[in-house]
Hints:
The protein has 10 helices and 12 strands. By secondary structure, the protein is an alpha/beta fold. The strands form 3 sheets. A 5-stranded parallel sheet has the order 2-1-3-4-5, with helices on both faces. Strands 7-9-10-12-11 form a 5-stranded mixed sheet. A two-stranded antiparallel ribbon has the order 6-8. Helix 5 packs antiparallel against helix 6 (about 180-205) and helix 7 packs parallel to helix 8.
Amino acid sequence: xxxxxxxxxxxxxxxxxxxxxxxxxxxxxxxxxxxxxxxxxxxxxxxxxxxxxxxxxxxxxxxxxxxxxxxxxxxxxxxxxxxxxxxxxxxxxxxxxxxxxxxxxxxxxxxxxxxxxxxxxxxxxxxxxxxxxxxxxxxxxxxxxxxxxxxxxxxxxxxxxxxxxxxxxxxxxxxxxxxxxxxxxxxxxxxxxxxxxxxxxxxxxxxxxxxxxxxxxxxxxxxxxxxxxxxxxxxxxxxxxxxxxxxxxxxxxxxxxxxxxxxxxxxxxxxxxxxxxxxxxxxxxxxxxxxxxxxxxxxxxxxxxxxxxxxxxxxxxxxxxxxxxxxxxxxxxxxxxxxxxxxxxxxxxxxxxxxxxxxxxxxxxxxxxxxxxxxxxxxxxxxxxxxxxxxxxxxxx
Length: 397
């Protein structure tokens, strides 16, 4: 991973010395001779390490680091200076914006390079900790949400059963007027839609339901899902391209994997809504001990600022949350599909990766580890624990 490094000093000779010292380092090197120029680089390049001279014309080093912290709170800040007065040193090392103080001139440029390497390691450690804290908080929210949704889904299901039952009885009356029959049939359609949402809620939140695993062919499962969607895709004017290759066997719950793939295809169908030419490509194959299925569309794409949220429960870019007037604004969606997909993937020891470009389309890839070799010892070693669709487990984003 590249770690941009910013050096700030009002002495061009010092900056030239630094450029020579870091000539063979793999990380991008940024330099500035003053605070304003440095802040512009912080805003445009977000350096991971900032090393600034303490005393400069205009903005001093501590002020620069404080302003930079407002633009990007995550960098590691260091100060170097030729002034050895104790007050300056103590202020620099005790300040929240500063991690380390470096005296200059340094006797060996390797000392400065090593200090920057240490700062990069600290940046990576802090980033990993921050990511872990975010994932833990998200897992806790999902677990709490699972408990809540379980009760809500049960209550709504009871209500919905009554609505559908009474509607069916009313429709059996031969004396209904055509207008009343039409109204009741609409009630039935909406009740069925509500049942589908409750089913998704139950699948997302049910902590007791267990699913078995069996050895299967991911390409074959994909073909079965495509057979189910073939007619509806053709009627929608979607050009479907199949690139299904032979894959090693995997240990999966076939029903859950099919549900995941169906969600991928449904989302691709919705994403291409309104495009002059609608295209969906389905690929399968193997790579590095894993097998994959990839669904690629030429649809509306996902803005970069939303990519981090697409797996959150109840987050959707369809319906009222879609851009006003867009084809997606007229589509149904409650934001459970991708969240459920990611939970299924995790419980299969797999993952979902996403690439997308707004206005050009998206690619969703489901990765699975290949099955262990057959045999009594191998089977004993690869027994799966029950699946819980509550959002527990490690997060892969």
